[in-house]
Structure formats: structure tokens, C-alpha cells
Fold:
Amino acid sequence: MTIRRRGRLAAAAGLLALAVVSCARPSAPDLPVLPIGGEFSLTDHDGKPFALSSQRGKVVLIFFGYTFCPDACPTTLSKLGSVYRRLGSDRAKVKTLYISVDPDRDTPAALKADLANFSVDALGLTGTKAEIDKVVGLYGAAYEIVPLPESAAKYSVSHTTSLYALDASGRTRLRFRYEATVDEIVQGIKAILAAGASST
Amino acid sequence: MTRIQIAARRIAVATLCAAALLMGAPSGARAQSSAALVAHDAWAREPAPSRDVTGLFVVLENSGASPRSVVSASSDAADKVELHEMKMTNGMMSMSPVKQIDVPAHGKTELKPGGLHVMLFGLKRRPAPGDTIAVTLTLDDGTTVRVTATVRKAEMP
Structure:
């Protein structure tokens, strides 16, 4: 490779880097649009049809779980309660969707009753297995029904525990691990709100 | 009275007090024990309104020279009590019954959210935050440990 070619390559790389930086600047470079998610329809905890598009304009938090779950789901809901308290006046801009992966046991009424225990602005969502499987697939989540013939639980549902954060246009911007702290989630929500405010 | 005598008297009083505390500990006290296994800081989560199921958490400390295991549990407050474990494998959270919960010699095992816990099925009465639930743990040597757990609100700070 000649020195001139190397120079040209370096210049091209520099230009490309500049282009990437300048393109990314308006839409917050640390908040890419993740290639997961999308529109879906389910049934809400009042038994009414629900479409994700009805939440445009809000940051939407999504997680999958089931009310029989004695541990992971109440832990996530408790954590979100703290997140809402920390958000202050921004809490009105955030909606949580708790999507059941156990439609046999989780009736809309059961979801509604359970959410009443938590100070989270949340809608419980359920549907047919096919409807739920579609949403699970869209978000790259997963679950598995595990028969427990010797347990009074009869079966348990193993499931992924990520929390997804969508922007006001319904695009997935962040995915939090189960271990994410209240601080991390609050900062993520504020970043999404800030990115939305600067792009309008 | 010499200094040594005073010290000896103080130690004797302290020992007597400790013994009295251990012997006379009521069932609702913070620590509950069998021979070598002590249970403390027991709590249960307020059950979901649509469920008669809840999880109970406790710290088990074994002061003995032999390892001990909890092999079963029972309670007048529930139809069935099981030993369970939550596990995170490849990002999937799963819950499954376990045959026993081991407590090492001179060690402790903590039953806590995200790990081992006691599951109560068919709660006969819906406990409110502040109520207590009594559970008896049976150990591999046949002895039992009575655990009194305080119910905490489902949403925790």
C-alpha cells in the first residue's frame, strides 16, 4: 500500500467518523434505536383491547412476568415503584406495561388486583398464547412453561427478566438487565425524555 | 472487691442473662433455634391479592460442627409448604422446588429474594403487612426449628 493511498484512506475514515458524529449528535449517540420491538395488540387489565400505539407521547417500560411468580415480578414492580417516586413530575410521562406469560392463570382481573399493591402507573396485559408469543418474539424475550407435578404450583414459567424502555414514538431505546438499579433506570428514562425533547 | 473479682462478677451476670434469654426466648422472638441451628430475620412477602401463595425468607445459622439441612417445612397457616429456589440461567429466571436446603457447619445460609425461599401454598387467611406467619422447618437430624416471619408490604422501598 502506498503512503498516498494510506493518506486517502485515513482522510476517508476521518470524514466518515465526522459524518457519523454529526449525524448522531441530534439524536443522542448513546441512545441508539434497538432493532427489537414493534406494534402489538393485547387485552388490558380491564378486559379492554390494548394497542401499543395508544401510548404515543409517553416513555413506555415493558417487562414480562406472571402473577404466580413470588419473587422476580414483585421485585421488579417494587423497583419500578422507587423509579416512579424518583421521577417526580416526569412520572406522568412514563407508562409501564406488565405483560403476562401465563395467560391461563393471569386473567385481567388478577393482573389488576396485583398491580394495585404497587405505586406504579402500570397496565397489566394478557391475551391468547399466540398474541403473547408474538410480543415475546418482537422484543427478543423468551419464556418456558415448566411442569412441576410434585409441587402445589403445578407448573412454573421460566422467563427472561429484561425491562425495555421505549421512546415517545414507540421505538425501543434501552434494555435493562434484571439487576439494573433504580438509578440506572431513572437515568435511562431521563435520557430518553431528553433525547425526545431535543429532537422536536 | 478486687478488679478481677468485679470482672468475674460482671461476666457471670452477663452469662446468666444470655442463658436466660436463650432459654426463655418466646416463639415470636427474633431468633428461633433447634440445637445448633438458629433462624433469624424471617419475613414473608404480602401475597398478591389474586393469589393465596407467598414466599418466606430467613437467615439460617449453624453453630454446630456438623452440616445440617432443612428437609421439609410445614405451617398451620397454609395447605402446603415447599422449599424452592429461584435461579437465573442464561437470562431466564426460573423457580423450582429443591429437596433440601443445606446449612454448612459453623456457617449460614440466607434465604432471600432471587434465591432460596420457603413457598406457602393455600394460605388459609390473607396476612396483612405486620402480621406473622409461623412455619416449622424439619432438619435432617429430625429436630425442628420454628420460624416466625413478619409479613412485609409487597412493594418494598
Summary: Residues 30-152 of chain B form a domain with the Immunoglobulin-like fold (CATH 2.60.40.1890). The CA atoms of residues 70 and 139 of chain B lie 4 Å apart. The longest strand of chain B covers residues 78-89. Chain B is about 15% helix and 50% strand.
